[in-house]
Amino acid sequence: MKIPKKLKFRKGEEETKNEKAEQKNTSPVFSVIVRKEFTDFIKSWRIIILLIIIILTCMGSLYTAITTIQDTLSRSEDVKEIAKDTNLFLQLFTTSDGTLPPFVTFVSFLGPLLGIALGFDAVNAERNKGTLTRLMSQPVPRDYVINAKFLAALLVSTTLFFALGFIVMALGILIIGIPPTFEEFLRILCFLCLCVAYIGFWLNLGILFSVRFKQAATSALSSIAVWIFFSVFYNMIIDFISKGYLNPESITSTDEAVTKQETILNLMRLSPNYLFSESTTTLLSPSVRSLGPLTMEQTVGAITGPLPFGQSLLLIWPQLTGLIAATLICFAIAYVLFMRQEIRTN
Amino acid sequence: MSEKIISLDKLTKIYDDQPAVDRLSLSINKGEVFGLLGPNGAGKSTTIFMLLGLIQPTSGNLQVCGIDSTTNPIDVKRRVGYLPDDLGFYQNMTGFENLLYTASLNAISRDEAKRRAKQLLEQVGLEDAMHKKTGKYSRGMKQRLGLADVLIKEPEIIILDEPTLGIDPKGVQELLKLIKQLNKEKDITVLLSSHHLHQVQQICDRVGIFVDGKLLAKGNVNELAQQLFGVRSSVVQVEVGEITESLLARLNQLDGVTGVEKVDGSFIEVTCQENMTPVISETITQNNARLYSIRCKDHGLDEIYHLYFEGREIDENTKKAKIS
């Protein structure tokens, strides 16, 4: 019973101290929420299982890539010299012997799944467990909650993908014995950033649904539905449209053919999956010179050779901004919805 | 007269043209235990949410600790602890960790938070379970942890929304005792919402009755009963062998009896102004009827409360019927 008495004396003093600390900078509270969310993620079985799957598949694809490259290298000594000039190192991410898809394909497949898994129950789980009202009755601005959740999830995916990318690079250097050039290194860094942006899109879609739908299952299913739509059905629909639209009998001039082809391409680019795959191929295969249709006139006289890094980046700039814009739009909608939403539990 | 710590002035919240809280004016003094009483959906929770600044009022003013919670919710939340009715904890964290998290959200240093958390957990009787995951806590334990969670920021006011919901009678008594103790020892103002009149009666200094977003009456419980029901009446239930018309007539003629009603079979209910059991039994035996049982049904506060709200519903129905 001695402690409460002491406490009473110290109460006034402490309060002013606390207030001062808070007035100085409010960020400690924000970082507290981020830290807690981050810990929750890395402790949850859902994320652990997903991480294991991603790591295993990446190792698998790395193995097939390495064996393919080694087979080619061992055929002759000259190849090694040629290899240095043709960005062989980047092939670690894109080559495969056909048994397992390459690293890039795995990322484009599992990345969205990770994003959705990180985001789909961000808000509604708190709501259903009754922790949201408790959290909101603490002196915390409302947007801290959703911002912190977003940031924590983004941190998890950034850490994971950079770690994976560097592991693949390290193993590549160790096993093949060819170090990456500085340009290749930059390309890989950009590729990893792109991955994070792509996951960010799906993460925000998940958060958006988690704000909108009260049940975690509904929001998970709707996020997965969107993902499946873009990865399977969207291509089918575009194929279907292009069959009629690009009918050779109805096309009369080259110009018309080019514009029609471009329309179809732009339709394809509405899908975040397509934007991602376009950008990754450009980044990781420097030989890609253009993402649109090229006429014979344009290609005649062109010397086939790798594009410099700056040019590749320029080529995918619209794709990258588009992807980030889509991410931000999702987050903005989720943010506004959450700020306006009633905190009521029912 | 002590200072006002919460004051509401013509507070109104309208949901889809339906007022959830209708021009509510109320003030609560420092150090008081105030009970908000009312049926479900009366607007109690809406009022509480507005006090915390979680819901914007449609019109009206409110001040908590002299701060407007509509414009400055963060400052209010720093001073007010709120225990929601369906409170939940992060299930994969222990009770102790949950408290530390709340403390860190209130910018309390880690050492201080640990000290306070330990002390509070002892106070609410959870010292044995403090390193257990909250997912394994029982409802009563959660409620007690909730109280500790509210107190860790050392608030000036605590708001408890249905704190006794779903706890066994013994737990309820302990919780109420704890609340009263906190109120006395630390001079914390308590605002309590409930629909259990007898619990409210036990600990509240004053009570406000809430129906359809309006405050119908306020004051201490005894005053309230007088105010709402006027003269108290009691009902004597009698079981006799055979009910005859002459018996009913005789009972009706007794002084102080306001009504006699045949309930079913051999039961009669006599409504009278005070407890008239001896007179009634005498009358029955004089009338040569066999008396099997006699019982005085005194109105408990709960019953009065139910009667009151039932009465209102009937009133409203008849009103509606008249209009149509």
What are its keywords?
heterodimer; A: 346 residues; mainly alpha; 0% strand; globular; disordered N terminus; B: 324 residues; alpha/beta; Rossmann fold; Alpha-Beta Plaits; 2 domains; four-stranded antiparallel beta sheet; 11 helices; 14 strands; ATP-binding (chain B); ABC-2 type transport system ATP-binding protein (chain B); transport (chain B); P-loop_NTPase (chain B)
Descriptive overview:
Chain A contains 15 helices and no strands. The model of chain A is unreliable at 1-25 (pLDDT under 50). Chain A has 346 residues and is mainly alpha-helical. Chain A is 79% helix and 0% strand. Chain A has one domain (29-285, 307-340). Chain B has two domains: 4-219, P-loop containing nucleotide triphosphate hydrolases (Rossmann fold, 3-Layer(aba) Sandwich), CATH 3.40.50.300; 234-297, Alpha-Beta Plaits. Chain B has eleven helices and 14 strands. In chain B, a hairpin with a 2-residue loop joins β4 and β5 (67-68). In chain B, α3 crosses α4 (110-123) and α4 crosses α5 (139-151). The longest helix of chain B has 23 residues, at 301-323. The relative contact order of chain B is 0.12.
